[in-house]
Amino acid sequence: MAAAGAVTVEFDGEAYLLPGQSIDVLLYKLVGHPRGSFAADLPLHDAGITWLEAAGVPADELQGAEGDEDGTSVRADDARGFALHQALRFTKKTQPSILASLAESLSAKYGYPPYSPTRFDDKA
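RE: above sequence
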């Protein structure tokens, strides 16, 4: 069982136990991007807009897991992982931290633009 307000995010076989404040940051970014709160950042992402639709899924799962007393984990598959990667790319992170470790793992897998044209067929 995770600590109160903490959520475990599983990505590429690793588990990252994120405390409540880190969850709040992720939710702010995952919910804010699709709503247009960070519209000026989209050209910097250079990752199309498909990930914006995918961002709502981990946001919903994080919110659900945050209140789950059984300690349900959030599993980041490819679409969720890429959305998390994009949400964290321009987010300041304390070093060292679990959030920074997750961001580094996501960056190692997904890298930076230019992304493969077959991965995204749409651009913002």
